[in-house]
Amino acid sequence: MKNYLIRVNGNEYEVEVEEISNSKNNSAASSKIVEAPKPNPAPKAAPKPQPKQEVNIPQGAESIEAPMPGTILSINVNEGDEVKAGEVLLILEAMKMENEILSPRDGKVAAMHTEKGASVSTGDKLVSIE
User: Which residues belong to the signal peptide in this entry (predicted)?
Assistant: First the structure.
């Protein structure tokens, strides 16, 4: 047996190679090939989280936050629109379900903090109502 140290892609492997001789014919020697284990691919670096953008909420306005992570499917109001309590402001898709985000009170849409197709996390500001 012969031991060898093999480097593959920066990883070291110790392998044993056995020489086998043919007893009937000493002139013919063969060797047994031992395959080195394949290295595991290096783990991919996790994507860097995007820094949260500062949301400017007008003074005296109430902000409506995302109750869960998801994707904005549609926005039913624009800045400056008058809304009534219970009116659907936007649709948030989470876990293949469409969730209506409702206005908590009567008022005017002061600012939109999201857009259609945006991915939002729990607590992200969506709309401000004054």
Answer: none
Domain boundaries in the chain? Answer: 2-31, 62-129
Burial of 83 (0-12, 13-18, 19+ CB in 10 A): buried
- As a whole number of angstroms, the distance between CA 29 and CA 128 comes to 83
Q: What tokens does 50 get?
A: 């995007």
Give me the phi and psi of 40, to 5 degrees please: -70, 140
Q: Alpha-carbon distance 98 to 85, whole Å? A: 20
Question: Cβ neighbours of residue 4 under 8 Å, at least 6 residues apart?
Answer: 14, 15, 16, 17
Maximum distance among all alpha carbons in the chain? 99
Tell me the two tokens of residue 36: 């080195």
Q: Are 10 and 42 in contact (CB under 8 A)?
A: no
> Could you tell me which residues are beta bridge partners of residue 90?
75, 101
CATH code assigned to 62-129: 2.40.50.100
pLDDT by residue (tens digit) across 89-121? Answer: 999 999 889 999 999 999 999 999 999 999 999
Instruction: Please report, rounded to a whole number, the percentage of residues in the chain having pLDDT higher than 90.
Output: 48
